[in-house]
Amino acid sequence: MLTDRDYDLISGYLDDALTDSERAEVESRLLRDTEFAAELTAIRHTITLVKTLPELVAPRDFRLTPEQVSAFTPMQAKSTWTPNFAPRLTRTFLPLMSAAASLILVVVGFLSMFGGGLTPQSLPNMGSVAMLASESAMMDDALVTPPNPAPVSPQAMTTETFPSGFDGADFPMDGTDSRFGSGGGSESGDIFPQLGETDENADGAMMMSVVQPTPSAEVEMAGAARSSNMPPTSTLVISPTATDAESTFSMFESAPTDEDSEAGDTSFDTYAYQATEPAADTMMLRAPSDVITAVTEESAGYDDATAPVIADILTDTATPKRVDDSPERDITPLGGLLLMIGGLGLGLVTALSRFRKSA
Amino acid sequence: MPTLQDDAELITAAQRGDLDAFNALVLRYQNAAYTTAYRLLGEPFSASDAAQEAFINAYRKISEFRGGNFKAWLLRIVTNGVYDRLRYEKRRPADSIEDLPGADSDDGAPLVAHTATPEQASERREAQQVIQDCLGGLPADQRATLVMFDLEDYSYQEVAEGMSVQLGTVKSRLSRARLAMRRCLEGKQELFADVFRFNN
Predict the structure, then answer these.
(1) CB contact, 8 Å: A81 with chain B?
(2) pTM score, whole prediction
(3) What does the longest C-alpha to C-alpha distance in chain B come to?
């Protein structure tokens, strides 16, 4: 019985690929081992048979067509795409413009990430004013009854009015504007203690207000909160009394913070308001919910002759939507990050492009 | 009969992108390319596809040809491509010889290049089909080694480079392939004419 090594020797012998010692070993065995010799003959014959296999005729024409080789050519040079701009413009201005765009993107992105987002305050020239949710959304909300307010002394209230001659009709009617700034000095530094418990008050942005109802106008006080941090809003529906018919507006004011009070600064900043179309018998005050609560509590301290009658409180529990007519929108930190990445990427591409050209 | 110079001129033109010149080379060697693919694959349709693919690859790589035997260079491309295909198929469930399309007499064996009398042609065709069947029954690596060495006259070293294996592996595979062919053909001696019989 022959081994694998025996067949390796036979195969190598037939290929003339053995060493001298291996060849001598094979030739020695051929003389004395008939089985080995027979197998060598059989393998040789097998090789002969295999080699008899003829060359076949190709079943079809394998010549290449231009379509088959259209994607490449034998001497294909590495193509370099160049924009079809004027070369001078491309070399000179395009990199500068790219660099400038990159810088702008990075800066805007940085401000957006670490500056609390792009706002009208951060970018005053953007010309947008944030407003709260639309009236329809507000009015669709359910009527709720405010929590029982703690009685508040009339002496604790601060009254503030606009200059005479001002009426609600002069206020913007389209919900695109609001007023910020000082509403005048305070006559009393005694602020509602419960307001001081709110976050807004802690930020110095909360207010107390006195409602001066008018029988001839419906005024919606819009709590256009400080742009990026708007609290939930409510609408106070007031049935005014007839005793103060000359008043044509109402306003909310921001109360000074405790720190301000301690510093002697008791001036109030007008929080925000918006006049709406005049109505006959009611007045609607729209403001952050905390403010509405405060007004409700105030009204409890009015005397019967002058206090407005609170008909309803419409609570807008949804997060106020920003209404902005200008095309600019707040840019979230994520957007800022994407802007920064885009800017850095553009800058990198520009730099690499310049490097390759110079190389 | 094309001369080596003829090939060189066509190759030079093809390297400049002359498709007609390359197609002249295709016409010269397409039978050899197809035959090699068929011996390795044992199936005419796959062999045809493999040959076509090999010519496309050859056209892409023609700029890398540095002279020498163009036919050997081309057949190496064919063999490498087919061997890759065989290695891929090796990982799949193998078909028996009887299941191979080429093993079915209804498919018809490919035409041979040489003419003969009808009887001779029939005998040869039958014997060649038996050899082809035995060849197709070999493991892919042994089959490729046998075809490259015994049919295409590669050297041990060329086979080793083509298959990316050691020289000793080539010798071992060749030995096993020949032994397997010997046993396969021995079992079908009755199908051969006298000239093919072992016992002559």
Answers:
(1) no
(2) 0.45
(3) 55
